[in-house]
């Protein structure tokens, strides 16, 4: 329990009584510093919300902090060793990517090359030297990019969509925070299914809702086209149609282990938890024994927070500087009010000096009033900012889903309290010194 000294307690009590006795002057002081404190709170809250939004976006693209990514040259034996080592593990996984088509076989998909369905226009295809074709896809803002639509087979366009298929040996959500929006996520603990269970992202779900296609999954290298089960929809931050499938479900349709290793070797990515050091050493040893050079096995640790902090530091300092300028203007206002109040209370302070009140206590009384005023102003600014944020989240969380889990940052509340106390200290320091220097003889003249 915090115990205040006698003088400090007396200064707070008398300062509180002075605030109640001069409500109008207190209100004027609060108004003078309110905008400055509010600016500090808004800047700090805005910077923290932007940091959280940027962190969430980068984590969807790169992974959570501490995730270890392993890279190595693609070889058939190396891929087989990785699959065998990581099978059934929860602290490490391998992710493979390939192109897949859902819908009518032997037809051209409605989005060649796995183009997003939100592209407002898709231009004609141009032939390339290798016999393939490249198309231009343009979005609503007019930005266009080339899309490789693969070899021109002359097949007619049918009821089929093309997407990126990510094959997982384990639950990737431990490393990348995908949010399930409908249905459920993949189950990596049960028995493999002959009907591969897949989870699609938003873009793929929109394409499936817009185009009615048969339930037939075509993946290059499989012995037949299985019938997929779409079990959920996930937000992965990817604008390209993407689906996720458990490797064991898909490997049922590959001829054998050798074909599996050959199929995945060119597109494998390994992710490990920070605590999976032993797994990393085993993987490295098995890759080396499979013929991969030890110096070609590289690892990289994700550090998203550090990168974001460096990017936002300068922007935050600039806006905090502007907020501090507004706060200083408010300090000038509370300083004028404080000097006027001390001028009206000269006889009171002189009388207190005459009955033995120390100079430090007189200065403490004036400082207590301005500090309490700054603290009350900070509480008002923080409450208003928190209420405005809550209203904004309620109104905007549908078009901006990342706002759904946003709460008022405690850093902004701390910054507001500090700004209010600093404003009270700066605005009350000179009046406090003047009050402490009032001579006892002033009572004689009164």
Shape: elongated
How much of the polypeptide forms β-strand, as a percent range?
15-25%
Helicity level: 40-55%
Distance between the ends: 44 Å
Total DSSP helices: 12
Low-confidence stretches: 120-134, 139-143
Q: What number of domains? A: 2
- Kindly name the structural category: alpha+beta
| Order of H and E elements | HHEHEEEEEEEHEEEHHEHEHHHHH
Summarize the biggest pleated sheet: 10 strands, mixed
- Rg over CA atoms, rounded to whole Å, is 33 Å
Membrane topology: Multi-pass membrane protein
Keywords: Cell membrane, Membrane, Transmembrane, Transmembrane helix
Protein name: ABC3 transporter permease C-terminal domain-containing protein
Subcellular location: Cell membrane
Q: Could you give the topology of this structure?
A:
Blueprint: H1 6-21, H2 23-61, E1 68-71, H3 76-86, E2 92-103, E3 121-127, E4 132-138, E5 144-151, E6 160-168, E7 179-183, E8 197-201, H4 202-210, E9 217-219, E10 229-235, E11 242-246, H5 247-251, H6 257-264, E12 268-272, H7 277-289, E13 298-301, H8 304-344, H9 346-354, H10 359-396, H11 410-436, H12 441-445
């Amino acid at each position: 329990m915090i115990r205040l000294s006698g003088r400090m307690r007396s200064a707070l009590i008398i300062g509180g009584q002075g605030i109640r006795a001069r409500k109008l002057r207190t209100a004027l002081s609060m108004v003078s510093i309110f905008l400055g404190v509010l600016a500090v709170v808004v800047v700090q809250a805005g910077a923290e919300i932007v940091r959280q939004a940027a962190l969430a976006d980068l984590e969807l693209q790169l992974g959570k902090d501490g995730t270890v990514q392993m890279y190595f040259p693609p070889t058939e034996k190396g891929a087989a060793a990785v699959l065998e080592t990581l099978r059934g593990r929860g602290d490490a996984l391998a992710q493979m990517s390939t192109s897949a088509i859902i819908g009518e076989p032997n037809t051209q998909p409605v989005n060649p090359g796995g183009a997003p369905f939100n592209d407002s226009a898709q231009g004609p295809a141009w032939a390339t030297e290798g016999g393939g074709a490249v198309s231009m896809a343009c979005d609503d803002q007019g930005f266009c990019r080339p899309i490789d639509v693969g070899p021109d087979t002359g097949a007619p366009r049918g009821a089929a969509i093309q997407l990126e298929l990510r094959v997982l040996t384990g639950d990737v959500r431990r490393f990348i925070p995908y949010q399930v929006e409908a249905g459920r996520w993949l189950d990596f603990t049960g028995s493999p299914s002959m009907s591969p269970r897949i989870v699609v992202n938003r873009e793929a779900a929109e394409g499936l809702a817009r185009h009615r296609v048969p339930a037939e999954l075509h993946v290059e290298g499989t012995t037949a086209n299985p019938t997929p089960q779409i079990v959920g929809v996930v937000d992965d931050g990817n604008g390209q149609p993407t689906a996720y499938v458990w490797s064991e479900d898909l490997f049922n349709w590959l001829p054998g282990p050798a074909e599996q290793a050959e199929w995945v070797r060119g597109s494998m990515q390994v992710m490990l938890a920070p605590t999976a050091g032993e797994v990393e050493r085993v993987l490295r040893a098995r890759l080396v024994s499979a013929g991969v050079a030890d110096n070609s096995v590289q690892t990289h640790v994700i550090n998203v927070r550090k990168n974001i902090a460096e990017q936002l530091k300068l922007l935050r300092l600039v806006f905090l500087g502007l907020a501090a300028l507004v706060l200083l203007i408010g300090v000038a206002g509370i300083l004028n009010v404080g000097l006027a109040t001390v001028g009206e209370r000269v006889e009171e302070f002189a009388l207190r000096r005459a009955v033995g009140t120390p100079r430090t206590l007189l200065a403490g009384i004036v400082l207590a009033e301005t500090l309490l005023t700054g603290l009350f102003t900070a509480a008002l600014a923080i409450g208003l900012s928190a209420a405005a944020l809550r209203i904004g989240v309620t109104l905007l969380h549908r078009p901006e889903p990342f706002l759904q889990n946003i709460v008022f940052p405690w850093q902004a509340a701390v910054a507001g309290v500090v700004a209010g106390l600093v404003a009270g200290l700066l605005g009350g320091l000179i009046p406090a010194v003047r009050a402490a220097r009032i001579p006892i003889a002033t009572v004689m003249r009164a």
